[in-house]
């Protein structure tokens, strides 16, 4: 079966398409500076740490004034296991009753959110790197 239309038959539709496309406002994605990229990264990592601390507070039944509040990030490591499993380790400080405490958290990143594997309040005798960081040669 041969078609009965010609390429020139599409000219009118093609011109209408081009006119429609040219009338739409162009949104150009702005490139971020190095400083902006670092800020976006740091903000995302802080959200991960805050999520971990929120989970810790919930698991320990700490709410309101009795809960810990995020203060600042201390260290961050990116861990890869096998071909596809990866996660982040964080050390950060949080405050409770005017006292600063050190925490460890392990999270599995998922875009803007994360799954919290664990979040632990570190004790004075907790020292050194975790097994995952040692195995991966992560810098402390």
UniProtKB/TrEMBL annotation:
InterPro entries: DUF3615 (IPR022059)
Signal peptide extent: none
Domain (DUF3615) ranges: 50-137
Pfam families, per the entry: DUF3615
PANTHER family, A to Z: DUF295 DOMAIN-CONTAINING PROTEIN, OS05G0543800 PROTEIN
Name used for this protein in its record: DUF3615 domain-containing protein
Source organism of the structure: Panicum virgatum
């Amino acid at each position: 079966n041969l078609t009965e239309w010609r390429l020139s038959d599409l000219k009118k539709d093609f011109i209408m398409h081009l006119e429609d496309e040219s009338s739409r406002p162009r949104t150009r994605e702005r490139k971020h500076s190095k400083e902006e990229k670092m800020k976006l990264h740091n903000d995302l990592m802080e959200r991960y740490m805050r999520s971990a601390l929120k989970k810790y507070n919930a698991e320990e039944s700490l709410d309101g004034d009795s809960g810990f509040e995020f203060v600042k990030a201390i260290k961050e490591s990116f861990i890869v296991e096998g071909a596809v499993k990866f996660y982040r380790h964080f050390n950060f400080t949080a405050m409770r009753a005017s006292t600063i405490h050190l925490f460890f958290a392990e999270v599995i990143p998922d875009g803007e959110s994360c799954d919290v594997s664990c979040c632990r309040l570190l004790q004075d005798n907790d020292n050194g790197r975790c097994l995952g960081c040692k195995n991966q040669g992560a810098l402390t």
